[in-house]
Write a structure and sequence with these properties.
mainly alpha; 203 residues; 2 strands; single chain; 8 helices; two-stranded antiparallel sheet; disordered C terminus
């Protein structure tokens, strides 16, 4: 199995080494850890960085191909899964999933409808509501490009043993919980531009 190869200079090759990002030990307490343990964790963090870089390259390519922004693509992904599971999607449900305002959702849906990516239809059981569906052309384009590429992750997971999958799953969930913004992260609640390209126009 080959490992992704990315160009590295003297800095990028050490981006995920704890000694490089925290030389004085102010962020990570390394007391009691052996050099072998630190080296092993560095390798794991570097592998995670390579995964993130691969995912970012795929995301960038899909945005260029579909001529959409990140929030648009997240919306289409949600609509694809909803269609596959036969779940109706209202503008309100989409806004909640994306974490954006009703006004921003309307603006996004107007743009996606003009581009031929979605269709608004009457809700099957609520005459006051609309349901949003992805068009077949956009569904096919997303499935045959970024969808097909993302599906390869399943194979990587399937090649692990059950015990390995359990360990990786526990590690990823532990890391996600560790990264979650808590009450002590006041800096994260400062006003600023909306995340995820909410106001970004297609490129």
């Amino acid at each position: 199995m080959s490992t992704p190869s990315f160009p590295r200079d003297s800095v990028s090759g050490t981006l995920f080494r704890v000694e490089s990002s925290d030389p004085s030990g102010e962020l990570v307490d390394r007391a009691g850890l052996t050099p072998d343990t630190i080296a092993s964790v560095n390798e794991l963090m570097t592998a995670l960085g390579e995964l993130k870089r691969s995912e970012q390259a795929l995301s960038d390519a899909s945005l260029r191909y579909m001529k959409l922004n990140q929030t648009d693509m997240r919306a289409l992904h949600y609509l694809i899964v909803a269609q596959n599971t036969e779940q109706p999607v209202t503008p309100g449900a989409l806004a909640l999933h994306l974490g954006i305002s009703t006004a921003s959702t309307t603006k996004m849906l107007d743009r996606l409808e003009r581009g031929g990516h979605i269709v608004r239809s009457p809700h099957p059981s609520d005459r006051r509501a609309l349901v949003i569906t992805i068009t077949e052309d956009s569904h096919r384009a997303a499935r045959e490009t970024v969808g097909r590429q993302h599906a390869k992750r399943f194979g990587a997971a399937a090649r692990l043993s059950p015990a390995e999958r359990e360990t990786v799953t526990r590690f990823l969930r532990d890391m996600a919980e560790s990264l979650a913004l808590g009450e002590d992260a006041d800096w994260a609640r400062q006003p600023g531009p909306p995340p995820g390209g909410d106001a970004e126009e297609p490129r």
